[in-house]
Amino acid sequence: MSKKKVLVIDDEMSIRFLLREVIEDIGYHCLEAESAIVGLDMVSTMKPDLIILDIQMPQMNGLEAIQKIRKIDANVPVFMLSAFSHMENVIDNLGVKIEEFIPKPFDIDYLSERIVEVIS
Q: Which of 69, 66, 50 is nearest to 3 (CA)?
């Protein structure tokens, strides 16, 4: 049986590194994309079991990306990250389904638990 895959889409290398450590420590395979554009291609080709998506990114932000992700895979669980807590309301107003809104800085233990709950 192959490991479940978590795709991290974030333009900050330090966040991708931290999330990779968390994801691999709990036994999953981590895929990384440094932009939403690269991430969208990976959603199509790699079929992740969970996506962790930052909102604030250049070129295409997470709000645009989540709408495109839903056209590719309507059911893949998505956690959205943001340093701006008001973005949770913006996501709700878009009417796009996400599994979880995770404010930055995030609690690593909570995030680990949620990843396991959602994709186990």
A: 50
Phi and psi at residue 116, to the nearest 5°: -60, -45
Q: Can you give the residue ranges of every domain in the chain?
A: 5-119
pLDDT tens digits, 36-56: 999 999 999 999 999 999 999
Cα distance between residue 41 and residue 50, in whole Å: 15
Cβ within 8 Å of residue 21, ≥6 positions away:
none
Contact 61, 36 (CB under 8 A): yes
pLDDT tens, position by position, 88-120: 666 666 677 889 888 888 899 999 999 999 998
The token pair that represents 33 in the structure block: 């994309």
Fold assignment, 5-119? Rossmann fold (3.40.50)
